[in-house]
Amino acid sequence: MGMRITNAQADAAAEHAVESVNARFGGSDVVATVEHHANALKMAFVRIVAPPQHWTAVAKHLKFDLGTNYCSMVTGTHHPEGGAERGWEVVYHLMRQPVANQAPHTNTVHVAEELQGMDVPLEVEVVLTLPQGQTPSVPSVQSLWVGADWNEKETWDLVGIQFEGHENMHRVLNPHDSPEGFHPLQKQHKIRYHDFNEMYDDAQGFGRKPTDEGRVK
Amino acid sequence: MKDNYDLVGFFLSKDGLLRSGIIGVLEGTPLEESASSLSFAVATFAVVNVVFLLLFFSQFAILWIERKAVARMQDRYGATTALRSLWVGENGVTAGEWWNMLPFGLGKPLGAVNKYLNKNFGNRDEKFATVDRVNNRSWMGKTIVPGFFQNVADGMKFLVKEHMVPQRADRLIFEVSPFLIVSSTLLILGMIPLSSGIYATNPDLSILYAIAIFGIAPIGVFFAGWSSNNKYTLIGGIRSAAQLTAYEIPLLLTLLSVAILSGTFNIIDSIHFQHSAGAWNLFLMPLGAVLFLVTMIAEVERVPFDMPEAEAELVEGWWTEYGGMRFGMLFMAEYIRTYAACFLFTHFFLGGWHLPFQGTLAALLGDSLNGTIEFFPGAIMTLVKSWLVFLVVFVWARFSLARIRTDQILEFGWRMLLPLAVLQVVLALVYRLYLFNPDGMSGQNDPVGGAAWDAFGIPSFVPIVTTVFWLAVFFVYLNDEDKSVNQERMFHVHTDKPAGTVSPGKE
Amino acid sequence: MPMHPHAQPNFRNLFWYPFKITLITALRTFPFIGKRFGKRLGAYHNTSHPEFLDDGSRARAASSAVMNDIGRQEFAPDRVTSDLKPTLWKPQTVQYPYERLEDMEPWLFVPGNYNGRIGVIWETCTACKMCVNICPNDCLHMTTELRVDVLDNAEGENAGLGMELEVGKFAAVEVPEVVAELDSFNHVTAHTAPPEEWRFAEVLDLSGDNATVRWNDSGEEAMIATSELYPADDQIVSGRIDLGRCMFCGLCMEACGFTSFFMTNEYDGMSGFTRQDLWFDASRTRVLPGVHQEAVDAELAKRASKERDKRARKAAKAAAEAAKGDA
Amino acid sequence: MAQMWITMGPQHPMTHGLWTLRVKVDGETVVDTDAELGYIHRGVEKIAEARDFTQITPYCDRLCYVSAMTWANSYIYAAEDLLEVEVPERAEYIRLIAAECQRLASHLMWLGAYGPDIGSLTLMTWCMRDREMFLDLLQELGGSRMHYNYPRVGGVKRDMPVGFADRLVAKVKLFEHRIDEYEMMLDESTIWLVRLQGVGYAKAEEMVNAGVSGPNIRAAGVNYDVRWAHPYSVYDQVDWEPAVEKPTSVKGADCYDRYRVRMEEMRQSCRMMLDAIEKIPGGKNTNYANGDEMILAKAPTRAPEGATGFSHYECTRGASQFYIQGGGDGRGKNPYRLSIRSPMFITIPFVAKTMIGYKVADIPAIMGSFDPCIGETDR
Fold it and tell me: Which of A147, B16, B270, B374 could cross-link B262 (Cys pair, CB 3.0–4.6 Å)?
């Protein structure tokens, strides 16, 4: 039969992580909570809300104490009308994966139901909110997880969030010669609906006007 | 063995029809005293033309064999409609009657032939008659050999393609090197005999000549790679040069051992030797045969040793920058070299134009059979043997095996093939000196063939023992499953049975 | 088959196994050898006969011979070994203009499964613009006009079940002199559009047998007997699908609540040389006449039954109030 | 020999898609590499902000065009997390069968491209022949061969057609014999082994740190699989095992291990489909009408303000993740921000670095063994 991590294991791992984070960062305004996904299996995960200046400490704690060895996703979001203290938001998704180097000719076979403690896979979502302003910046975790390197490049390229201490920052998805301040996922760039006429007059140079001029969809 | 179809004899013999006719014509004219040399020149020209055209057009057979065998091996079999599309057209006419564009009405006969073929072989089946603008390329027409002229069509296509020279290419070398390769390849065809009487030239040292000519092409390849001013072709050219030199030497040694065994440097004599000695070289030196094939595959850069032209990283290797008929020539040259390799293997190891067991058959059935054997043209036997060699060795290998990396090719060439080739030369010397008794040789035209290799009184003892010995070696290596290495097969994680052997759903 | 786990490169592996498997694959394709030794050579095409047509399709296909022999098709999981074609002379590929994939493998083109060309039943369309809004690439464009619904005066057992006047909706009044003139109006030779035979107005309230309406053209209000008023609403006049932008996702088919949007099985005939050729108007989005007729009938029956239920419910509610009233 | 930069440019047989790998070469050995992505960046994340939740599915099909079904499923799980929808059991089984069928088709596409990369030209035609079988199955489900737009928030668009189960069993049983043929052709061929073994080493921890996931990491000897680690769908009720390989050297997994893992994964997918089609609730030969509550649950179309949805899904090439911040333009019909995590976007730069030290002829071997798909990389 297939195997799966049971909800109990996930909850236990999440609670352990939350306690260790809250114990370590009790005083400062770093808050860790256990949340549950809303779909059928209701799996538990840890959400940490932290100010950007504590992010490096939280990251080190996650990597070295909680064994989070996999930075999977960095998401930047632009909130122009989110009020003074919520102008930008950077969400890190980190995972703990029970993966270790193997001796030659051997492999580790995890049986999901019997995993305990630090071997139970854990999903961590770290939310950093940045105040309004033109230059949102977050300390880079490129040195902790190599996986975060290209994620941060992409986030800067698309959303425009600076990552201090990130070497060799260059555009990855946009052409290298795109203008300096251009970050497409910021909200001021509305996705311009090419209505029926514009589609044919745009730069690609089809240049032909459709017969029913002026009629929008 | 005397060959009835002695083309060379017919053309070149002094009192032959052609030569005596020419000498007769020039009887009274001032050219009289040089008539014989003139007739010799004309006769040689005729012989060379006939043999070369025979060899060249029989080459389309191997291209057809490769396409059909490959289609079946790759499970996408089916007839190609190339030939039919040439003549089958919308209601009996090929789209556009292009032949009318030919000057001076030269196209008219072509159009007539086309209409005739359309009417008789074309699409006579009404079911597909209602086809509008698409050419009526139905497969209903019957042809003997479906898809035979597909390669001709592909070849001709290159004539109309543009030849571009890369911008800062070394123009002279870029344009000359394909001809260097092609001409050296065609020279090899010059001295390949189809049967004892049908050959263009018969130099005394034809084996040396063949190998020398084979050696020129690598220079052309390297020039092509270097002069195309393209990094990929440079790497391809260097890889090819390294590979060809690495495999040239084992090839030489193998042919040296053939020459030692047959005692001559002439291909035709070595074939006669094989008949009169009573055993084909294949059974005397199977190791040499395998070595010859492996080095030939590397020499013509076909798949297992295909790194210079590796699609994956070098696109087309040193051919990349060529277009137009030069690319067509290179492509044709590759196939001519493969064809020449098959011919050489047939001549050196499979007894050229002799039927298998021709000697023993002649001995058993007496002269009632000998009459018929005379009339069987040796050339057909040579062609069939080389086509089979091409099918089994070159085509089958190309579509079963993958490509070896360049450094592995070189390592395999220097480390494995060279010592084996030297071993083969030693074996050939031993065979020739100790196991061969010259008085067993029969005359050249004696149909029964000799028994030079039957040591200790047992007829053809040496070839049988050699073959059995090398087959035994082959099977020992074939089954060397080293059971000792424990089965670290990836196991089903919960069961201990190896994953591969337990195929779910298999009843 | 002995599977060496991490096969060591050795002489045996150098060529024996790959050569063997390519030989087997080649032998399988020979017409006679392949058939006789198919099972041993790994042809393995088990001839299970799964169901091809669901009941609806089989009922529809009862008449036509072609669809019936589809049922008897010998199903081979992999095209290679189904002996639909002589193997030696026939190219393996389906010769497109002469043979069609739907003849070779009919089970791939079961109606309703394949997202091919869009087919629209323009008659049953009620211009609700659901499809226009759901389309991710905005390929659908529709022009609507205020008209009296043609379907309302349908005959047969569904007669009289059309829309009813409602406050806030539109109504139309016949213009008598135009109706007379229309009989003599020759649509073919006239250079102008036929005069408008209806005069549209918005219904403000339906007190008794008179209704106050506000004319659309002049805007002032009037009182008219409800018997003269015909219900009217936005009807679709012309629609266009830009197949140049369409990605055949099928969302429009699902969004349409009136079974007037289909994705047919057709995969060809949707090409053109300019972008305008890819604009499919009503004439190029037709559906097979049989399917068209079935859809229209089904839609009319559905609307009629819905209308009957509505009226029944209204009558029942009125009766209940009446009963409560006099109780 | 002088070192030179070679551009294995956007249009190159090795790249399996549109991206550039600049390689600094000293003779035959690779000295330095630089990956250049973004050629087919279509801005799906930006478009998604102007579309509502059902309309985004066709765009997610076009993320990785070789395994469209898995990517649409991945997005739909995130949308269901956002809109708090429970999917009926039958719909989960159908999604599992469709995803595993797509995994097979995608692995066959990989093997068909990997063969000619290493030189064996027959593989392309064999793999495409077998892939046709599974594309036919997916065409019966989704309506087209490559992009299906099949899953909906709360279930699937349409139930399995009549006879689908029998055809599925027939094809999967035939394909299991075909895998034996591939393994006879490749597993035992010395030339294949010599080209793949000892090439492209990557350690397990190094890969995890670099964000590599999926079959590539299972080749290094750990059976980590998102299907059991972060469970979704009904993978725990179906008979299967994560395919894991035993690396031959301490330097980690080489190309041969990655090839072996994918072959074994194809077997596991076959096993899973055969088991799932027997256990499907509601019977394998019944066909429910579209929108029936057995295959599609009622789902809201607006997300509450500030709600977020996250899905972690085992795609054919690795772990794909979607993160949706709901409550778009005030009405909540559009996502405020849709973030897509593509496994290959992080694996390609990692692989570019692992190539250093190997030969030029090994570049297609190593790159191909990680099975890059550029559609999902550039989004």
Answer: B270
